[in-house]
Amino acid sequence: MAAGLLGTRQTPVVAIGSAFIDRVPPWLKDLAISWFGTHDKTALRIGILVVAAALAAIGGMLSVRRYWAGALITIALAGAAVAAAITRADSGQTGFLPSAFAGITALIILRLFSRRLEPLLDFDDDGVSRRGFLQLTAGVALGSAAVAAAGRVVGGNRAAVADARSQLRLPKPPTLAPPPGVQAEGAVPWATSNDDFYRIDTALSVPQILPSDWQLRIHGMVDRELTLTFDDLLKRKVLHKWVTLTCVSNEVGGDLIGNALWSGVLLKDLLDEVGPAPQADAIQSTSKDGFTAGTPLPTLLDDRQAMLAFAMNGEPLPVEHGFPVRIVVPGLYGYVSATKWLVDIEVTRFDRFEAYWTPRGWSELGPIKLSSRIDTPLGKKVEPGPVTVAGVAWDQHVGVSKVEVRVDGGPWSQATLATDPSVDTWRQWHWTWDAPRGTHVLQVRAFDVQGNPQIEASAPPAPNGATGLHTISVKVG
Ligand SMILES: Nc1nc2c(c(=O)[nH]1)N[C@H]1C(S)=C(S)[C@@H](COP(=O)(O)O)O[C@H]1N2
Ligand SMILES: [Mo]
Fold it and tell me: Which helix (H) or strand (E) holds 395?
């Protein structure tokens, strides 16, 4: 409720969770993604609530005899949340207050309970004090639920942002139709819908930005700074472009990759306008919630058409995908380029800053690695005879020239590639396999436009992207 009234996202759970996310080692982040996928944040919230409940239970038991023992645990919990909120980049001056209120409320409630419990400890309990205790319990439970629900209603501009988003009229792409792709059963569609698009970010609570409040400042090593509003952005020349985004945490065969039609303005046009200094070699882009990415300046000025995107598949960006404006750079993993809820771009040099993931064990530069994936047949038994094997291969901004499949370590056979509008998207492929009975191992590999094969040696996602051949086992018969 306090967070709602103060208009901050820093509830105690969000404050603790965000501080935790900022500190998890890479292996734990990857473990969380492989266990929970894109539900990693729900898992974290539940985890925090379970730990808090356990500590509260211990505190409650201790405070029956000694109020201060329980109070100390309460103060430690609330203190951790206050400290976490203070260190958040986006928590402002009031971000610690909800956690402080939570601590004070908890101390008062604990005191009430331990008072009521004292008579219950006597043997001549007459039932009156027991009833009183249970009534207090029910009252506190119902009261907290009601206050929390009311807090959601007054809290955040979630509804206002959803409303503003649905009212937006943005320039439409000429067509949303993807090129004809591979239609095999089980093949992943070439175009990824907004609902199916993977989501990866550090935002436990998603920034809610009204387009009318949005501003982007482009500054740093430039001839003249520029500040843009959302309306300024819409007045510019609009570009519509299919680009496949990929997460550096994607395992071999993983699904942290998606292909969408993005609409926005060319970053090059804006950068030409501000005039980067000749010594500048990077931009540091910053999100509303303090996340930062470091992107090489040349990748924003060359012909790959890096953009500030405001629409995804013909709709305003979904809030989880960066509403109202994000960056999209073909050929770079998201962590070094695709800043969502973008509010600031500083033209600078790599030797002057470290972006969010760099001190956390990830490479400063993150070009996407040539990779391929089998999507069908996956995890099901097939009949002997002709079987369509299909999947995708990607090497954004370089291009895939050839995909090959092999069975049980035998010779490689060439797959057929679907047509592709540009080198900035993944490419579907298919191959017909005359499948004999038994259990067989299928593998895929891709080649780039220069004829280089993808890296076959297995490597984990950290520090700059997984490598290895996607290998599946298929039962036939
Ligand atoms: N503000 C913000 N932007 C972000 C991130 C983030 O944590 N915060 N994560 C990046 C990473 S690691 C990836 S892979 C892409 C994912 O974009 P998506 O969630 O729209 O698929 O967003 C990038 N942009
Ligand atoms: Mo990512």
Answer: none
